[in-house]
Every structure is written in structure tokens, then in C-alpha cells.
Amino acid sequence: MRRRLSKTLGSTARKARMRAGLTQAELAERLGLSSEVYGRLERGLLLPSVLTLRRLCLVLHLPSDRLLGLASAHPPQWTRSPPSERDSPQVRRLIRSVRELSASRLRALSLLIAHFRRRA
What we know:
Number of helices: 7
Strand content: under 5%
Radius of gyration: 19 Å
Number of strands: 0
Helix content: 55-70%
Order of helices and strands: HHHHHHH
Shape: elongated
Distance between the termini: 36 Å
């Protein structure tokens, strides 16, 4: 989960930095970080401290929920718990597929499951 969070944060920070027209070195300087450290953050190899996260939000004019990938309609991948290792490969594939469904398709699948349960 930590790795997925760092990848989401790094990707979002990179896009916001580029929209702001800043280089990694310029943004790193504004944050009080070395360019190397900021580069690791953008590549998803490092999670920032809370203070650095706050500075990043302020400099990029980006709310923290958006930077963390929480502002979208679908929960970000890093918030999803992985399927249990005890589950069969078939169940794990099904869980991954269900997570990709839109809200309307998820409702339809729920109705179908309820129908099968009543018939069982």
C-alpha cells in the first residue's frame, strides 16, 4: 500500500509541477529539499514528511486530497487492500475486476449476486 501511495503522490506532483512550469530543481529549492530527494519523491521512491507534504501543496496550489489521489470518484489504488493470499487465483481475478467497475455496473452486479443467493 505504501508503494502505491508514493507512486500516486509522485505522479500527481510531477503533473502539477509541469503545469506550474517549474523544473524539479526549482520546486526542490522552494521546498527546501535537494533535487535528488525531490526526484525520488516524484519517481514514487520516497514519501514526504507531513511538513514537506504541506509545503508541496502550498507551492503547487494543490489540495492535499488531490495530491494523495483522494479527490477522484473512484478510490485510489493505494487505498485498496490486496486480495488475501488464501483466496484462489480465480477469486483474486474477480476481486480485481470488480474494483474496476463503474458505480452503475457495480449496482447491476450486486443485483445479480442477490438474485443468485435467493436461488441457492
